[in-house]
Write the structure tokens for this entry.
Amino acid sequence: MRKKIVIGNWKMNPPTLEEAEDLFRAVKRTAGKVGKVVVVVAPPAPYLGALRRLQSGGRVHLGAQNVFPEAKGSFTGEVSPPILKSMGVEYVIVGHSERRALGETSAEISKKVDALMRRGLKAVLCVGEAARDSHGEYLGELRGQILESLAGVSGKNIQHLVVAYEPVFAIGSGNELEAKDIHEAVLFVRKILSERYDKGTALSIPVLYGGSVDKKNAGAILSEGGVNGLLVGGGSLTPHEFAMILTVAHKGRSYDAS
Ligand code: PGA
């Protein structure tokens, strides 16, 4: 059975390396007890080196929150896929709505996804509508985002793609989408992925949900939401909360799209 993937997206937190190390140690302790979950932590990039040293002997996979699509060169302030790979990073979040809000376009995102997958890094492509309307126009927005973010991304390295469905209004708001609405949206995401590739490929791509996931709603989202895992922001910054989410994911029923 496919393992669930739970990614802690720390965003621009915590404020010091010392706190980041404490948080990471706590996740590492929990990760040792949740063998049915692929546990990923995506810290701010400057912490990666120190956390990599703490990672040794444990089950926590390292993630990053962004990447630049070129391999090397004169791109001040940017970080490439080979740099991340050499730091032990395996998963890279791409196209998060907070980055799209800073001006990142789907065309840029597709280059990042492609650059990561070609180097064997997992690209965690975030998509999600800004708001919902009663006419279903948001589905068009979602469809456009998925197809544009995967334009030029061949099916060849598709085993390295993960999609995170994150409705923007649910992020950081405390208002997660209900499990049945997540399920509907995830079916739609898979439908677009099968149009883009084929049905078998679409079913093989893990789809995660993100947006105000906490220890209380994680179980229902995982068992009824049709997802293969979770992308957790705020809930990953408190050791106890994240430990509970990971435990729920380990113990709970899993959803099998195939
Ligand atoms: P949240 O963030 O869990 O704090 O809503 C999720 C995300 O932005 O990935």
Q: What stands out?
A: The chain has a mean pLDDT of 96. Residues 9, 166, 171-172, 210-213, 231-235 surround 2-phosphoglycolic acid (CB under 6 Å). The two ends are 11 Å apart (CA to CA). The first helix runs from residue 17 to 31.
